[in-house]
Design a protein that fits this description.
It contains 17 helices and 23 strands. By secondary structure, the protein is an alpha/beta fold. It folds into 3 domains: about 160 residues, 3-Layer(aba) Sandwich (Alpha-D-Glucose-1,6-Bisphosphate, Chain A, domain 3), CATH 3.40.120; about 180 residues, Alpha-D-Glucose-1,6-Bisphosphate, subunit A, domain 3 (Alpha-D-Glucose-1,6-Bisphosphate, Chain A, domain 3, 3-Layer(aba) Sandwich), CATH 3.40.120.10; about 90 residues, TATA-Binding Protein, CATH 3.30.310.
Length: about 525
């Protein structure tokens, strides 16, 4: 009976036909069926096909127009005063086409456009504030394959819109009630490359020790997966005095491998690090907001530990400053606090290093906007996500691989050790990912509720599914629902893979019993 109602799979996700489809990855994905996914964070889909079923010019116009309409409601201005929006893109093959349509629609709505051209996601975010714009649109499908593109929407702070604002745009787009500007009120266009301004801001941070990195004489192999990371990251490394061996740095948009920076996709990078006798390997996704590192021995540092390492450096820096100055931890961290934040599915290692220095750790629901909201609430010094996303509010509230690299290399220069040795100084955990497929979506609530009851004596968090933390064992398991299919995703973390698997299987066994 259990096999009829529930299936257990290793975790892998693709998005197809406006639904979440899970498959074990074999190295080839068939995207023949066109896809369009609308969410509060933007619109994403494959290029080509019929309107409403893929990311077509019609859909791009509708969504961009709705963004303009809601921009005027969100930021009302006196009659005649102009609106300004920054548009940046990664190097996808469809980027120029999507950019032309987005910019043309903005102009036709009477909005002035600042074209940032090839720009990382964090560069476009910061460009909004650099140019004192009213918002921004990022053209990138992040780690999705080259068939995909997306529009990601920003407010006047260069931050992603909240849930209510995103929902209002979706509703407006569905109405298709257009009213474009007359010829006398059309918007204007200016081109502006913000790359160096972004890097200037990173290198001006007090926590980035440029001189120490230069003296260290590091050699780094960079895999930029043929996107905009191949423009900005070599420039950053050069300014830091780092020798950069470039892999896949020509921004053609024809990705040399699956663009998600996971170990299975970074074989060439790992081999080249060893061959070149480099100190470090660096991998970024197409829009350069995620950062994965490779040790000098060619082994992955682990995406979860990108944030852990940077946080350990910043917290330790603040702790030592407090000791030397006689000030409190929060005084030396001002205007922030000795606190960190990440999403519920990220490693406990961040909490461990935070508490080691007398700081406080906070958990947020999964999603960058949820993490940044929590960071603002608790005044976090540093935060992010376990997928290699580093958010350092002293620069801006957005995931940023450039500041991640600068802070990591600063730490490495100060510690004067190999990357593999640095990794061993952090608490070691392993996260496993599984899923439960159910025949009936109604079973999800039943399972989550029952799991919560069974583990009521443990530390239970229900802000995003159900997460059970076993404090005495330093283990946790997190159950999250799918919003589109009868699926529960299960993440488990422990000191070893065997322990994490056992914890996940324990919860899976409970689910089977509930189903009958």
């Amino acid at each position: 009976m259990g096999d009829k109602n529930v299936r257990i799979y290793p975790y892998f996700v693709i998005l197809q036909n406006c639904a979440v489809v899970h498959r074990q990855y074999s190295g080839h994905i068939n995207f023949a069926d066109m896809t369009l996914i609308k969410s509060i964070s933007g619109i994403r889909g494959t290029i080509g096909g019929a309107p409403g079923g893929a990311l077509t010019p019609i859909d791009i116009v509708k969504f961009t127009y709705a963004y303009c309409e809601k921009l005027r409601e969100r930021r009302p201005k006196p009659s005649g005063e102009r609106y300004k929006v920054v548009v940046g893109k990664d190097a996808r093959l469809s980027g120029e086409m999507v950019e032309d349509i987005v910019c043309g629609t903005l102009i036709s709505c009477g909005v002035d456009v600042v074209k940032a051209g090839f720009a990382s996601t964090p560069t476009t975010e910061m460009a909004v504030t650099f140019s004192k714009a009213d918002g921004g649109i990022i053209l990138t499908a992040s780690h999705n394959p080259k068939q995909w593109n997306a529009l990601k929407l920003l407010n006047e702070k260069g931050e992603f819109l909240n849930a209510a604002e995103g929902a209002a745009i979706l509703e407006c787009a569905d109405k298709e009630d257009f009213d474009f500007a007359p010829v006398e009120e059309l918007g204007t266009v200016e081109d502006h490359d913000f790359t160096d301004e972004h890097l200037d801001a990173v290198l001006a941070l007090p926590a980035v020790d440029v001189e120490a990195v230069r003296k260290a004489g590091f050699k780094v192999v960079l895999d930029a997966v043929n996107s905009v990371g191949g423009i900005i990251m070599p420039r950053l490394l050069k300014r830091l005095g780092v020798e950069c061996v470039e892999l896949n740095c020509d921004p053609t948009g024809d990705f040399a491998h699956n663009p998600e920076p996971l170990p299975a996709n970074l074989v060439q990078l790992c081999e080249t690090v060893v061959k070149e006798k480099a100190d470090l390997g660096v991998s970024v996704d197409p829009d350069v907001d995620r950062l994965a590192l490779i040790c000098e021995d060619g082994k992955p540092f682990g995406e979860e530990y990108t944030l852990v390492s940077v946080a350990d450096y910043l917290l330790g820096r603040a702790y030592n400053e407090a000791l030397e100055s006689g000030k409190s931890l929060d005084e030396v961290c001002a205007p922030y606090r000795m606190a960190t934040a990440s999403n519920l599915s990220s490693s406990r290692a961040l909490r461990d290093v935070t508490e080691k220095f007398g700081g406080e750790y906070f958990a947020a629901a999964v999603g960058e906007v949820n993490v940044t909201t929590k960071m603002k609430e608790c005044g976090a010094l540093i935060g992010g996500e376990g997928n290699g996303g580093v958010i350092y509010p002293a620069l801006h509230y957005g995931r940023d691989a450039m500041v991640g690299v600068a802070l990591f290399l600063t730490n490495l220069a100060h510690r004067q050790m190999k990357v593999s040795e640095l990794l061993k100084t952090y608490p070691q955990y392993v996260i496993t990912k599984n899923r439960i497929d159910l025949s009936d979506k109604a079973l999800i609530d039943k399972i989550l509720s029952e799991v919560q009851k069974i583990y009521a004596n443990e530390n239970v968090n229900t802000i995003d599914g159900v997460k059970i933390s076993f404090e005495d064992r330093k283990q946790w398991v997190h159950l999250r629902r799918s919003n589109t299919e009868p699926i529960i995703r299960i993440y488990a973390e422990a000191a070893t893979k065997e322990e994490a698997d056992a914890l996940a299987n324990e919860v899976i066994g409970i689910a089977k019993k509930i189903i009958g």
